[in-house]
Hints:
Layout (H helix, E strand, L loop, with lengths): L1 H7 L3 E3 L9 H15 L4 E3 L3 H10 L28 H10 L8
Helix pairs in contact: 3-4
Amino acid sequence: MLTVTSGTSDQYILTMDDLNSVPQNEMIETLKSLNNLYGNEKGLIIPDRTLAIKWAIEHSNPEDWIIITGKGHETYQQNYRLQTNSDKETVLYFSNKKKYYRSN
């Protein structure tokens, strides 16, 4: 998937999804390794998923497409900087400037 993404995208971001008991620093190293093997210079690694979405929205133009894969509407299993519960809420927060807070 990364080979296709890096070959067809103007920019891409690798970020963390659910860690499933993998230590965060190990996951970051895995992302770096995957980017080195299958990615290219157009890729960024932003471990915090909410900050990665924020970066994508802030650095896009009105005619750009942003494709977020991995979580969709599913509830986050870990805490991120922005206290949203899902990718959908994170996008809505930055797109509409609405505030969503984690319920737990």
